[in-house]
């Protein structure tokens, strides 16, 4: 008979794993399990059980398929941002040239239109109409009553971060209050980028460019949970960028990793150093932050017409100062989230190792918008603002556009006030709603630092504007302080500040003040495009990230021999005279464990009942690493391998049939395979967080 075996972890870890379990056992009416108040999935479902083979084979090696990359003519990266989005591309024969997409139609005063707003408009019949500036401008020009029929969505990416139980059926709410499927909206947006990019590539090539020639890269925040990352992949499949059968055509890249890859290439003239440790690009940390950045932005603006960025095939000067084992932090501050990752350099190739799992939170520039909305509620009343957003949605969008351009003018040393134009319909609707004027509301509100100007504007003092930034910036600084307390982060050499929000002088100054004495703080020029350009480089060479941290613990459910005193009595299952412990979680990898790209973890199992011809292996995940049973809190099923061995009766099978289970980690997706060693029959599955 089989012994209960301990299975060792991997990555050289020899700590014995307390055996854990999921069994899937076919029971007949005459063979029922002992009754227990505890409802075990193993007893309620009629699947077949597996138990670890003794000794269990544990092999960690890289999958040979990882290096056999499909050949593509071009890599197109899509930076799908919370507030703005865009794409860039590079031909695989000219990897040193990164082309950023064509200029967008439209644009706002004081806002660079290198990317386009992440806004989408559907017709009253729920068909795709337009994206970006085109969507916003068309919506704005609609008659107010007609606008109520159209579905306008903006900043919807945050829904994937904030929804705890994300599924393929999750809804988004349009500006008019109507619900629409999130998957549809994301697929429409990605389809739009696909069509724009293919059209631009075809125009440039002078002939029709096929989608099959393109490797797509879509960026997502590193702090997103696995279901959100999978959701983005599903939306891309629906948009026709790739397919489940050709999944390698699409890479889901983590935003701070993409930034990190680009930062490796930075030359001195492509960055601004904030900290006072050394002068870079002619600026020292003692210069005002705003002055250095303004000159850099002017330099960028002059170079922008070509839209082609040369990435020299060398390591940048900053990078060349890094030695084996040196650490740096990438702070990716975008519209919705802030992502913090810690990377370590591995020489000679300069590959990257993720040293500490990605952390962060919803501390993007949207937080400043929310503070502005709270200020408006304080002055004009929450009931009015809510009604105004519903009754005059296009005017609300106008007001937030006006705020956005003034928000970008906020700076630590600013002394003159900032004027925000109120749309006429705001002033008009307020008078109808309250029976008195906007000016009267401002006088009554006791908000001293916001005045009314006779030109129909809210006049904010610089301190008032800075106060709107404070809660968000405080959250970022606090999160960074926590990170710097960790032993892995104590000797960081550089902090790279990237993402759209990194353009804000107030954030730059706060980061410099808090951490300028701990490490050198570097901002790439054209900082809002850092992730986009890094994502192209990642698509050209996905193997540049060598080691990641696993965000979850993964394992399969098995049966183990029941050991009195060790296993809980409610897990006892007696079968053909053998006492089994059910629901054991057999761990493949622990949360926060280092995983090499393409790393394979193999385990060998045998059917608990020798005559079983249908082997069902259920895969589970948990955010905790101390998991014992699949019934533990927080354990979720995320995959099923069903191996049907009927029709293999002519094959000589050993008494204890070996079923080898392999999980491949390290990419942003995880794949599992089960192989019957005797017949070589196999089945594959991708880990699925949305459909269980």
TrEMBL record:
Entries under InterPro entries matching the protein: ATPase_NBD, HSPA12A_NBD
Region (Disordered): 32-61
GO CC entries: cytoplasm; nucleus
Transmembrane segments: none
Record-linked SUPFAM superfamilies: Actin-like ATPase domain (SSF53067)
Key words, A-Z: Acetylation, ATP-binding, Cytoplasm, Nucleotide-binding, Nucleus, Stress response
Stretches with biased composition (Polar residues): 32-42
Any GO molecular function: ATP binding
Cellular compartment(s): Cytoplasm; Nucleus
Quaternary structure and interacting proteins, as annotated: Interacts with SORL1 (via cytosolic C-terminus); this interaction affects SORL1 internalization and subcellular localization.
Role this protein plays: Adapter protein for SORL1, but not SORT1. Delays SORL1 internalization and affects SORL1 subcellular localization.
Annotated family: Belongs to the heat shock protein 70 family.
PANTHER family: ALPHA KINASE/ELONGATION FACTOR 2 KINASE, HEAT SHOCK 70 KDA PROTEIN 12A
Protein name: Heat shock 70 kDa protein 12A
């Amino acid at each position: 008979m089989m012994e209960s075996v301990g299975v060792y972890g991997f990555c050289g870890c020899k700590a014995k794993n307390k055996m854990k379990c999921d069994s899937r056992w076919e029971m007949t009416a005459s063979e029922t399990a002992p009754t227990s108040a505890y409802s075990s999935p193993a007893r309620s479902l009629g699947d077949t059980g597996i138990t670890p083979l003794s000794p269990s084979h544990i092999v960690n090696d890289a999958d040979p398929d990882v290096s056999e990359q499909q050949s593509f003519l071009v890599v197109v990266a899509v930076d799908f941002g919370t507030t703005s989005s865009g794409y860039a591309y590079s031909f695989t024969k000219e990897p040193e040239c990164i082309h950023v997409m064509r200029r967008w139609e439209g644009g706002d005063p004081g806002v660079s239109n290198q990317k386009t707003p992440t806004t989408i408009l559907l017709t009253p019949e729920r068909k795709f109409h337009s994206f970006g500036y085109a969507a916003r401008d068309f919506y704005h020009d609609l008659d107010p009553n007609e606008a109520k029929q159209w579905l306008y969505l903006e900043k919807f990416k945050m829904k994937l971060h904030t929804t705890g139980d994300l599924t393929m059926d999750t809804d988004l709410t349009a500006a008019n209050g109507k619900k629409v499927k999130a998957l549809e909206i994301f697929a429409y947006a990605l389809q739009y980028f696909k069509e724009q990019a293919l059209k631009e590539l075809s125009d440039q090539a002078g002939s029709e460019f096929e989608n099959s020639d393109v490797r797509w890269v879509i960026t997502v925040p590193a702090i997103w949970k696995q279901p959100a990352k999978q959701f983005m992949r599903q939306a891309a499949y629906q948009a026709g960028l790739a397919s489940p059968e050709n999944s390698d055509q699409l890479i889901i890249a983590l935003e701070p990793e993409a930034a990190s890859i680009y930062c490796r290439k930075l030359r001195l003239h492509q960055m601004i150093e904030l900290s006072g440790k050394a002068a870079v690009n002619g600026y020292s940390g003692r210069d005002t932050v705003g002055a250095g950045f303004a000159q850099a932005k002017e330099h960028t603006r002059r170079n922008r017409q070509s839209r082609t960025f040369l990435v020299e095939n060398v390591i940048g000067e900053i990078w060349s100062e890094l030695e084996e084992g040196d650490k740096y932090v990438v702070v990716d501050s975008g519209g919705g989230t802030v992502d913090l990752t810690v990377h370590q350099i591995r020489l000679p190739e300069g590959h990257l190792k993720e040293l500490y799992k990605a952390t962060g939170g919803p501390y993007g520039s949207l937080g400043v918008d929310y503070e502005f909305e709270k200020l408006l509620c304080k002055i004009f009343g929450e009931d009015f603002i809510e009604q105004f957003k519903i009754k005059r949605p296009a005017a609300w969008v106008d007001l937030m556009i006006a705020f956005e351009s003034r928000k970008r003018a906020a700076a630590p040393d600013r002394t003159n006030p900032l004027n925000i134009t109120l749309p006429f319909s705001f002033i008009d609707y307020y008078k109808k709603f309250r029976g008195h004027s906007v000016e009267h509301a401002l006088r009554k509100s006791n908000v001293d630092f916001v005045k009314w100007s006779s030109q129909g504007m809210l006049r904010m003092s610089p301190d008032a504007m800075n106060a709107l930034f404070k809660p968000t910036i405080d959250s970022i600084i606090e999160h960074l302080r926590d990170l710097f307390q960790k032993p892995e982060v104590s000797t960081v050499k550089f902090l790279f500040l990237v993402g759209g929000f990194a353009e804000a002088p107030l954030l730059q100054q706060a980061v410099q003040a808090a951490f300028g004495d701990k490490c050198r703080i570097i901002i790439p020029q054209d900082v809002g495009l850092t992730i986009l350009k890094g994502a192209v480089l990642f698509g050209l060479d996905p193997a540049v990230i060598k080691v990641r941290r696993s965000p979850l613990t993964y394992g399969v459910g098995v049966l183990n021999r029941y050991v009195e005193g060790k296993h809980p009595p409610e897990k006892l299952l007696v079968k053909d005279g053998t006492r089994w412990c059910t629901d054991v979680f057999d761990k493949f990898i622990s949360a926060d464990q280092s995983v090499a790209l393409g790393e394979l973890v193999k385990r060998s199992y045998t059917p608990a009942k020798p005559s079983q011809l249908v082997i069902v292996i259920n895969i589970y995940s948990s955010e905790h690493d101390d998991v014992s049973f699949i019934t533990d809190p927080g354990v979720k099923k995320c995959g099923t391998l069903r191996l049907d061995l009927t029709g293999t009766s002519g094959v000589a099978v050993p008494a204890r049939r070996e079923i080898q289970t392999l999980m491949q980690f390290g990419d942003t997706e995880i794949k599992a395979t089960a192989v019957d060693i005797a017949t070589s029959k196999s089945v594959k599955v991708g880990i699925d967080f949305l459909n269980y």
